[in-house]
Amino acid sequence: YTDEYGRVKVRMNIYANQEKRDNALLERIQKDKHYLQDNPNTTNESNSTNQTRTNQENNTYKMRYSYTSFLRVASPIASNSSGFYHTPRIGDEVIISFLDN
Predict the structure, then answer these.
(1) Distance, CA of 32 to CA of 56 (rounded, Å)
(2) What sections of 3-95 are H helices per DSSP?
C-alpha cells in the first residue's frame, strides 16, 4: 500500500504475535455476529449490541494495519536529472534503517 508521496507500509516481524491476536479477535467477533444473526432478538438492546460489535469489527480491522507506519523508499541511484525509483511490491523483502536513535 502506498500513499500519495510514494511511501509504503511495512509489516515488521516484531508484530507477528500481534497479528495472530488480531486475527483471533476478528474470528471471535465473526462467530458472535453469526450467533446473533441466527438467534434474532427484536429488542433495542440486541440492536445496540449488534451495532457495537460491528464498530468493534471495523476498529479491529483498522488496528491490524495501524502499527505499520509509512516509510520513505530510498533508491540506490538518484539525482536531480537521472536515476530510478522502485516501489516495493507486496511480499518484497526490504531493509529498514533507523536514524537518530
Answers:
(1) 12
(2) 16-38, 44-66
C-alpha cell at 56: 468493534
- Give every CB contact of residue 19 below 8 A, 6+ residues apart in sequence: 11, 64
Q: Record the pTM.
A: 0.44
Q: Residue for cell digits 536529472?
A: 81
CA–CA gap between residue 63 and residue 44 (Å, rounded)? 28
Q: What is the pLDDT along the chain (101 residues), one digit of tens a residue?
A: 788 888 888 877 776 677 777 778 778 877 877 666 666 554 444 555 555 555 555 555 555 554 567 888 887 776 777 777 778 888 888 888 887 76
**Separation between Cα atoms, residue 88 and residue 99, nearest integer Å:** 21
